[in-house]
Write a structure and sequence with these properties.
Layout (H helix, E strand, L loop, with lengths): L1 H19 L16 H16 L27 E9 L3 H8 L5 H14 L4 E11 L4 H18 L2 E9 L9 E12 L13 E6 L8 H11 L6 E2 L2 E5 H5 L7 H9 L3 E6 L4 H5 L8 E5 L8 H10 L3 H5 L6 E7 L4 H10 L5 E8 L6 E3 L2 H5 L3
Parallel strand pairs: 2-3, 9-12
Antiparallel strand pairs: 1-4, 2-4, 5-10, 5-11, 6-7, 8-10, 9-11
Helix pairs in contact: 1-2, 2-5, 4-5, 8-12
Length: 377
């Protein structure tokens, strides 16, 4: 967004100057090559109020500079460590493009970045986006960026800039790609994970669906089953399949930061690609494991349908999808009820999933009777 504004203004001025003195008046323009500067300028004007709506302490500058400015001192941190992360939405974008619905993938983009920051105890401070397309649609791009702004407001971070690139030849006319970048801060003595030990309690915060992972597999199953995105969802006839699949990724910033500020969190695990089996071990010491109670892990209907339609095993589901749990929270056994209360007060519906235990020679994530409970091989 930021860079596009300056590139568009600069080249527009050059074009006007060339036409005024009669030079190259019949020559090619950037628009002839497939890049519409005027559309870019119009998009910048359309998204300025969206970016402004995400303002917070430390972010006072308007869009239009060569770089976004942020005043870390204004946030009040005493001994801050910066935490940075970037991510995308993956092939979920293909569902949005085919369903012609673009208002939720921006929320996904923010969620995938900021949820990774809070895992280390960090508060997201600011966000930048990258939107690349073959031919700029102001309507679709504004819809995407409105979702980004909505995600930033929910996460409490400022949208301070980004890049919009129109690249004919690299992308088709109706195609686009998204990437996001976020920076957060955490007090040095609050960096997570820390103090995880045997006997700690594992809590789970529910997901809203598939979030933004596994869509290459999801799309393959849907194609094989012969469903269209406008069809009623086979697991919920009240909505279309496209609507169900485009449910945005949940943003867990407020409840997780409440635990951090209360000194209750030992660790978090954002359940993204790799599912429960691959993500939880990332925050555990090598000598520890988690024992999860399968009765506390009912597979959501959309995932049950997908597993059955795709003939997938329970293990494949658990290592690919979030299986209904978008964020894992690890707390001391002595703090379990207090942590549950804090999460509930912040709009969550946490459930106890299991405990941390010595690993021994076993796996880092142990779920007994998984196949029997989920009805998958």
């Amino acid at each position: 967004m930021v860079r596009l504004l300056f590139a568009a203004l600069g080249e527009a001025d050059i074009s006007k100057s060339s036409q005024a003195d009669g030079r190259r008046s019949n020559g090619l323009t950037y628009k002839d090559a497939g890049v519409d500067i005027d559309a870019g300028n119009a998009l910048v004007e359309a998204i300025k109020p969206l970016a402004k709506s995400t303002g917070r302490s430390g972010a006072d500058s308007a869009l239009g500079g060569f770089g976004g400015l942020f005043d870390l001192k204004a946030t009040g941190y005493k001994d801050p460590v910066l935490v940075a992360g970037n991510d995308g939405v993956g092939t979920k974008l293909l569902v949005a493009i085919e369903a012609d619905r673009h208002d939720t993938v921006g929320i996904d983009l923010v969620a995938m970045c900021v949820n990774d920051l809070v895992v280390q105890g960090a508060e997201p401070l600011f966000f930048l986006d990258y939107f690349a397309t073959g031919k700029l649609s102001i309507e679709a791009a504004t819809s995407v960026i409105s979702g980004i702004a909505a995600g930033c407001r929910e996460a409490g971070c400022a949208l301070i800039g980004g890049e919009t690139a129109e690249m004919p030849g690299l992308y088709g006319e109706n195609e686009y790609d998204l990437a996001g970048f976020s920076v957060g801060a955490v007090e040095r003595d609050s960096i997570l994970p820390r103090d995880i030990g045997a006997g700690d309690i594992v809590l789970g915060l529910p997901s809203s669906g598939f979030h933004s992972n596994g869509y290459s597999l999801i799309r393959k199953v849907i194609e094989g089953a012969g469903h269209g995105y406008d069809d009623p969802a086979p697991f919920d006839s009240s909505i279309s399949l496209g609507e169900a699949l485009l449910t945005p990724t949940r943003i867990y910033i407020k409840p997780c930061l409440a635990l951090v500020k209360a000194g209750l969190a030992h660790g978090f695990a954002h359940i993204t690609g790799g599912g429960l089996l691959e993500n939880i071990p990332r925050v555990l010491p090598d000598d520890l494991a988690v024992d999860l109670n399968v009765d506390a892990l009912p597979l959501p209907p959309m995932m049950t349908w997908l597993g059955e339609a795709g003939g997938m095993s329970a293990v494949e589901m658990a290592r690919t999808f979030n299986c209904g749990v978008g964020m894992i929270v690890i707390v001391s056994a002595n703090d379990e009820q207090t942590a549950m209360d804090v999460l509930t007060d912040n709009g969550e519906t946490p459930r106890r999933l299991g405990t941390v235990a010595e690993r021994g020679d076993g796996d880092a994530v142990r779920i007994k009777h998984l196949s029997d409970s989920w009805g998958l091989p």
